[in-house]
Amino acid sequence: MHDVRVFAQAFETYAMKNGRWPPSATDGAVPTGMSGELRDADWAQDCSLGGRWNWDYKTNGVTAGISVTDATVDDDQLLGIDKEMDDGNLSSGILVKNGNRLTYILQK
């Protein structure tokens, strides 16, 4: 949860400075223009949920979102995280699961 909050703040800061979100990037890749905003080593490493961090811009059903692809934790653990951060439902709110992707939505 801490990493998501730190990354969300970095992307929001970028958007405020530049008037737009950065472009999408592949799993584990630091999005163009975000090297100074993200702690690159943390973003490029596997996340604590297993899987890889991913920045989604105008893709996967959101305008802007931080995703984890191929998380290795089970749905009960993800639901616990959702209860802490959102509405306790992995199919609604700002933290949603869609197939192998868990996304923290910054802009719908």
Descriptive notes:
- By secondary structure, the protein is α+β, with helices and mostly antiparallel strands.
- It has one domain.
- The protein is 31% helix and 25% strand.
- It contains three helices and four strands, in the order ααββαββ.
- It has a four-stranded antiparallel beta sheet, covered by helices on one side.
- The two termini are 20 Å apart.
List keywords for this structure.
108 residues; alpha+beta; 4-stranded antiparallel beta sheet
Strand order of the largest sheet: 1-2-4-3
Tell me the fraction of residues in β-strands, as a range. 25-35%
The whole-angstrom Rg is 13 Å
- Largest β-sheet summary: 4 strands, antiparallel
* Classification by helices and strands: alpha+beta
Oligomer type: single chain
Strand segment tally: 4
Averaged pLDDT: 92
The figure for the number of domains is 1
Describe the global form.
globular
Helix content: 25-40%
Topology, element by element:
Blueprint: H1 2-18, H2 40-44, E1 52-59, E2 62-69, H3 75-85, E3 95-98, E4 101-107
Summary of the model, kept short:
The chain has 108 residues and is an alpha+beta fold. The chain has three helices and four strands, in the order H-H-E-E-H-E-E. A four-stranded antiparallel sheet has the order 1-2-4-3, covered by helices on one side.
